Amino acid sequence: MNSDANWTSAPPTSPPTSNPSTGSTSGFHAEESPVSGMSPLDTDKVKRFNAGAHDLKREAESGGFAINEDGLNLYKKACEKFINEWSEVRSRLWGLGDKAPLGDFPYADAVADFNVKAAIDGSDALIPNIDLMVDGYKQALEALEIAHRNYARKDEENNLCFARINQQILDGTA
Questions:
Q1: Nearest CA to 127 among 85, 98, 90, 97?
Q2: Domain-embedded: residue 8
Q3: Which of 19, 38, 105, 108 has minimal Cβ neighbours within 10 Å of its Cβ?
Q4: What residues contact residue 82 under an 8 Å CB cut-off, 6+ apart?
Q5: Where is this region: Disordered (predicted)?
């Protein structure tokens, strides 16, 4: 986020759904996407997204998918935007981890304690969920980098194969 962005501008909630290598839409719609409308307030969705990103990386590592340069650049830009914006939101939330001085009576203490729990200490707290979201985007980014290397390796294999065939044609041995 740049310095003139205001606090009310929310980070993006879902990645692009077009296939950058073909221009067509993907096999899923944003409404069905694990990140559609994702919020750090929805712990279950954040955990599913994080697990899916780790699965995506494992799939890329096993050679399960490849992505061309254009696709890599598009999705890389989206992932980096998510990472940067959610990281900034996270840093702003750390201020909620300090118990606010709301007064010297039981209700004020209860409200201040709730704010701390909601921000950093609770099982559904914002900061741990944002950490999972950012980790998921980082895993997706790593998966894309691996998938691009898969693409480049396969492209090189294909080029070598075509070069051999072309040479055989030229030699008359095909």
A1: 90
A2: no
A3: 105
A4: 11, 12, 15, 133, 134, 137
A5: 1-43
Please give the tally of structural domains in the chain: 1
pTM: 0.67
In a domain, 157, yes or no: no
Q: pLDDT truncated to tens, each residue of the chain (174 aa)?
A: 333 333 233 333 443 333 444 333 333 333 444 455 678 888 899 999 999 999 999 999 999 989 999 999 999 999 999 999 988 888 888 777 778 788 888 898 888 888 888 778 777 788 889 999 999 999 999 999 999 999 988 878 877 888 888 888 888 887
**Which residues are bridge partners to 117 per DSSP?**
none
Q: Does 3 map to a domain?
A: no
Would 22 be classed as within a structural domain? no
What residue type is 111 in one-letter code? Answer: V
Bridge partners, 22 (sequence order)? none
The Cα–Cα gap between 120 and 95 comes to 10
